[in-house]
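Quick one:
INPUT:
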């Protein structure tokens, strides 16, 4: 494999609720290389979201470790972890999670503003990303003035704003009709090859999963490679 972006070692997440203990992620060893496109499929409750949240530093493992571009995420101070997330990772969710009062342009410039990118530079980058995603006529629209597919494209532009090395997508087509689903899946594939960005994509849709170069199946917190 080429350069490793993220590598987990015996990654485990146990949730305790009342008397029950759930091993949502159960001893996973996973390696994703630069520019690799991996899809993760599996039944509801098998631990896909938990795994993605751990990879993205949105949750902490119970045991095991995650190396991101060679750095042990568990050893980072919170501020450094925030920085890693901001600059090296992009997130896409089923529900888009855009800021409702911001325009498309403002939603895309926000992560760059937080990262301290100068105003002119971030405006130019946001406009170019939105144009690339076919939204040049929509940059001043707010989320409620956009279709679901357009909102997801804004969210993808936002995820790419700080040129991450890994895109984490949790059922990004879950709220879209079949035509828009196909469009977004194709777009992810295109961005994957164009920017050589690694993608970890969780999906229930077999056709969406097929755009990836490797498909992993998750069952009861474990990965089965096919
Ligand atoms: N915060 C939490 N507290 C307790 N249990 C949790 C928590 N988050 C997830 N779980 C449990 O962990 C298991 C895995 O959940 P997860 O959300 O990762 O599944 P999933 O594969 O993403 O499912 P879906 O396809 O429905 O989104 C489930 O049994 C769930 O009930
Ligand atoms: Mg899930």
């Amino acid at each position: 494999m080429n350069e490793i972006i993220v590598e987990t070692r015996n990654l485990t997440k146990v949730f305790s609720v009342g008397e029950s203990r759930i091993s949502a992620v159960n001893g996973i060893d996973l390696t994703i290389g630069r520019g690799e496109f991996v899809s993760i499929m599996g039944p509801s409750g098998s631990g896909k979201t938990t795994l993605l949240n751990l990879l993205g530093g949105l949750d902490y493992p119970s045991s095991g470790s995650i190396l991101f571009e060679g750095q042990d995420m568990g050893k980072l101070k919170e501020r450094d972890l925030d920085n890693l997330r901001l600059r090296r990772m992009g997130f896409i969710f089923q529900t888009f999670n855009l800021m409702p009062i911001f325009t498309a342009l403002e939603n895309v410039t926000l992560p760059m503003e937080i990262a301290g990118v100068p105003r002119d530079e971030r405006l130019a980058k946001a406009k170019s990303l939105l144009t690339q995603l076919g939204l040049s006529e929509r940059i001043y629209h707010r989320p409620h003035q956009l279709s679901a597919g357009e909102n997801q494209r804004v969210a993808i532009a936002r995820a790419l704003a700080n040129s991450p090395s890994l895109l984490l997508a949790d059922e990004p087509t879950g709220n879209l009709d079949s035509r828009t689903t196909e469009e977004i899946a194709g777009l992810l594939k295109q961005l994957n090859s164009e920017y050589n960005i690694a993608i970890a994509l969780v999906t229930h849709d077999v056709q969406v999963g097929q755009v990836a170069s490797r498909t992993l199946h998750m069952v009861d917190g474990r990965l089965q490679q096919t």
